[in-house]
User: What shape does this take?
Amino acid sequence: MKVGFVSLGCPKNLVDSEVMMGQLTARGHSLTSRPEEADVIVVNTCSFIDPAKKESVDTILEMAEHKRTGNARRLIVAGCLVERYRGDIRKDLPEVDAMVGTNELDRIVALCEGETGGVANPFEPYLYHDLTPRVQATPKHFAYIKIAEGCDHPCTFCVIPQYRGGFRSRRFESVVAEATRMFENGVREINLIGQDTTCFGEDFSLKDGLANLLARLAQIETPQEKWVRFLYAYPNKVTQKLLDTIAEHPALVKYIDMPLQHASAGVLKRMKRGSSGDIFLKLIERIRRTIPGVAIRTGMIVGFPGEGDREFEELCQFVEAAKLDRLGVFTYSDEDISESYRLDGKVDNRTKYNRKRKLLSIQRRISRARNRSQLGADVTVLVEGRSQETDLLWEARMTTQAPEIDGVVLINDFEGNPPAPGQIRRLRITEAHDYDLVGTLLDGGYDPLPAANPFPILGMVSKARAYEVSNLS
Assistant: This one.
């Protein structure tokens, strides 16, 4: 049986798709990147914000056409949309033959093979481990490892805990074993992900769990240079031990992804996150003092209920003062199952849009200045492949640029060895733009990796994710 996958949303969702694909291939089924050839199509959905929900439904309907025009006999919907709209999908989308919730990944084989049974226990929390079959859907040179699932934070705007359940960590040695195997298979960069990676190990009473895990991963012996990155740090969980660990090990990239969400103490209180812009500025100063050259990325929500002109001005002043390396700006999405849905002080859509544009314009100036300060510098980059815009250019990333969410370095010339995907090379920056850089590869470089991943996936970056990425610098 041939199965095709479309994976929408965040990297955490992508790992779920990789686990489901792994289970299918372990059972002897094959994967295809051509939906018209697939016997079964699986759409792993996202429903975090309205554009993601719309993209999920549009993709389901698009893939349903292959039941009429192609080989597809079954259409299966997985992921967060199922957790929230299972009844509506069953009623309004008769094209869908089966559904898989976020805690039901083990059912994917049976459902693809035609089982029509009811829902498995949806309250039994699921978390894969190093022995779980998994197919890597990213390019061969970088991968994601989910180190935890669920979340215990009470943020009023977030519905993820309702989909994913309470926080739970993977076992320490399970993560190390999976990372070791990935490096042995040629992965150059591992990105650790979870709803909140900085809580890793707390449910096992493990002190400094993330810091100790990072130190252990940095010590894995590899024949070539490796990068280890973690994403989604909760600000009040960023300890001095964690910062010292990042500073100590060269393999740990100097990059902190720390969603702050806002800078007004009043808005943060309504979000049930606490803190304030002044406290955040002190934390950012401590991060930069401990880790020279660190890049700090954050996300901000504009238009949260109760955000007046004064609160928005506080946010703008914070962004001006913090001079962050990367910033994502998102308009508040009023989800009817979130706690914030019941808050007063709603902000109209036009105001949200205008505030988003203003905040992005502030960050654009900061990003342009930061990029210009790097002109003439020699930096280390990981070569991604040819540019999607033109075959005349190649794309690469510095350690300060996370895959799929930050800007890139465009390669317009090289000395000596031509570039190849997966090489870690030295590059001289020759041009600086608002978000991207341009440079010349210097001589040298590692042996190239295979240019293509042998395991296909129909769609890896959805329009919903592209909507999110377009807001980032």
User: Anything to note?
Assistant: The chain has 13 helices and 18 strands. Residues 349-372 form the longest helix (24 residues). Confidence is low (pLDDT under 50) at residues 460-473.
